[in-house]
Amino acid sequence: MIELIVSDMDGTLLDEHMDIPQENIDAIMHTYNKGIPFVVCTGRNFTEAKVKLDEAGIRCPIVGLNGSILFDRNGKVEYEVDIEDQTALDILDKGYEAGYYMEAMTSKNVYSSSREQRILAITELIHGMNPQMSLEEARTRATQSNEVTTIEYREDLRTLVTEEGQAIIKITFVDADPDNTIKPLAEEIGALYPDTHITSSFKYNIEINHADGTKGKAIEKYCQDHGYHIDNVVAVGDNFNDVSMLKAAGYSYAMANAEAEVKKHAKYETTSNYDDGVANAIYHALKLADSQ
Hints:
Rossmann fold; phosphatase activity; magnesium ion binding
């Protein structure tokens, strides 16, 4: 028996054009017709995720920022897990001292330390998914994308806490040489602040949340609050920030394009995000449940 479908977005629900393909939409609508709800569980914030869902005609709860915040269908925050203010400021201090590009997320929006660096990061993401595309075209798409136009920019991200009184939920560092820069920093931050959880959603970044702000814990809480059994949940993902929910769900699927280490934590593998992997995972899980 399947009670809930949960899917990551980037590299999973979204295709190489960063859109939700019709086959995935049809599969989600099929589960709706069977009385099975659908939830997005993403590293994105509400606005970033909702734009793509609206384009596809999908209205659903959004577990955002790697599991640290839950929005209902209308964008109302049902819960959030913040990084302690001083910890967030200390981490941002380290980023500024090292000169890294950073993003900070609150319940209100995503904030970037540099519009140009945000464009470069999205350009790299688009080009990585479409290697046949020229860098110039990838940059043009990035500049016009919702991932650039819907977020806000701050010269100093620390003012979100010190002047605006916002609580930071997630901090992201991006660098072109992560193995020699931000990944060693991630180990340092993890040792200094054991109440943090550090993961990654693509090869050039690290993402820092509170230790209780993971996708796995978020899905477990969602099940408890809504009367679902975690063994009857389908979870689909592709990267390291998805591992906790893949380990938790009864029917866990790694995308064919997932990192090899991520695949080890899933019970099943589906096709890539270029080839309707979420739809194929849903149909496969439904057949499995019926046969059992």
